[in-house]
Amino acid sequence: MNILEKMPKKVIVITGGAGFIGSHLCDKLIENEYKVICLDNFITGRLENITHLLKDKNFKLLERNVTEYIKIKGRVDYILHFASPASPVDYLNHPIPTLKVGSLGTHNTLGLAKAKKARYILASTSEIYGDPLVHPQREDYYGNVNCIGPRGVYDEAKRFAEALTMAYHRVHKIDTRIARIFNTFGPRMRINDGRVVPNFTHQALSNQPLTVYGQGIQTRSFCYISDLVEGIYRLMHSKGNEPINLGNPGEFTVLALAKLVLKITRSRSKIIFKPLPADDPKQRRPDITKAKSILNWRPQIELREGLVKTIEWFRAGSEP
Ligand code: UDP
After folding, report:
1. Atom 3 (ligand 1) nearest CA
2. Which residues in the chain come in under a pLDDT of 70?
3. What pLDDT shows up at residue 7?
4. For the chain, what is the domain count?
């Protein structure tokens, strides 16, 4: 037995562990010999994302709403706060739970980190930049957010979450990290979560028209899930407490994305244009200079390759 085998496994609490990003993180952590305690209230998370882990002795699921007091027995080494509705449609459907999980949920998880002397990783978002007036977005840009608009419930909750995390770091000396996550896609997204990749994929595979909002000239940068998970894993093990952008800097218009999905799926669906939702950011691209230098991280999977994998996954799921 080597020395590593004798060391007790590190214990991680992850909130939102049954969600899209959370469940992929659970897989990565179990693979890397951590004990994982997954908390989820299943507002947008799904049991099927983690069913394969339920029999693992290092994995424990607790059905909890983290806006209420969290009690965990024993040692905890890391807390990853990933719980939140995260697609515009989801947070419009659940505006108050979104505000509560970003505020009360962040407070409770930071309190747990303080009590357990655990390292804390907050899942923040490119939404904190709002409809950005600086392009690409660097971490020192303060953003352009409409606090009372429909997206404000998510944007302001995450901005508050970042402020509280930094306050706990400064006042209580909690060892915190903040990941500003840009658009991410891949298997386990819900087909009806309203985000652009599942929408276009579902529409193309079921011969329905692809719904491009506005003229489709707004841009996004899409990061494949395995790249994002690697970035978060590196962030967990890095030094430094300032926020770091994690995303793929390749930038595409929404119309270009629609055409690419049609090409990959060989679908004959048409493209139709619908009104642009309120406060929809016109452009978005991460500056990842910091992630490159601090984490030695950059995305490996380009949009087309990631889409092929994602579409395959959706196709397999939609077959009888
Ligand atoms: N979008 C679209 N058609 C859809 C869904 C989304 O044109 O069926 C656009 C949306 O208006 C936005 C972009 O795609 O400009 C990305 O939307 P998503 O909901 O994926 O996330 P966001 O980046 O806005 O948070």
Report:
1. 212
2. 1-6, 318-320
3. 73
4. 1
Please give the number of the atom of ligand 1 that sits closest to the Cα of 199. 8
Nearest protein CA to atom 21 of ligand 1, as residue:
195
Q: What own/partner pairs with CB < 8 Å and gap ≥ 24 does 299-302 have?
A: 299/223, 299/224, 299/227, 299/231, 299/247, 299/248, 299/249, 299/250, 300/226, 300/227, 301/224, 301/226, 301/227, 301/248, 302/248, 302/250
Atom of ligand 1 nearest to the CA of 183: 23
Q: Do the domain assignments include residue 121?
A: yes
pLDDT at 5: 57
Which residue, judged by its Cα, is nearest atom 19 of ligand 1?
195
Residue of 20, 92, 213 to test ligand 1 pocket, by largest number of atoms within 8 Å of CB: 213
238 in any annotated domain: yes
**Helical ranges in 79-194 per DSSP H:** 88-93, 95-116, 152-172
Domain that includes residue 33, residue range: 9-186+223-248+286-300
Nearest residue to 67 (alpha-carbon basis) of 96, 45, 27, 100? 100
Integer Cα distance of 139 and 145 in angstroms: 15
Question: Which residue(s) pair with 176 in the sheet?
Answer: 120
Does residue 199 line the site of ligand 1, with CB under 6 A? yes
The answer to whether residue 179 sits within a structural domain is: yes
Q: Which two tokens stand for residue 105?
A: 């949920």
Q: In the annotation, is 154 catalytic?
A: yes
Closest CA to ligand 1's atom 24? 280
What is the model's pLDDT at position 4? 52
Is the CB of residue 273 below 6 angstroms from any atom belonging to ligand 1? no
Q: Is the pTM value of this prediction over 0.85?
A: yes
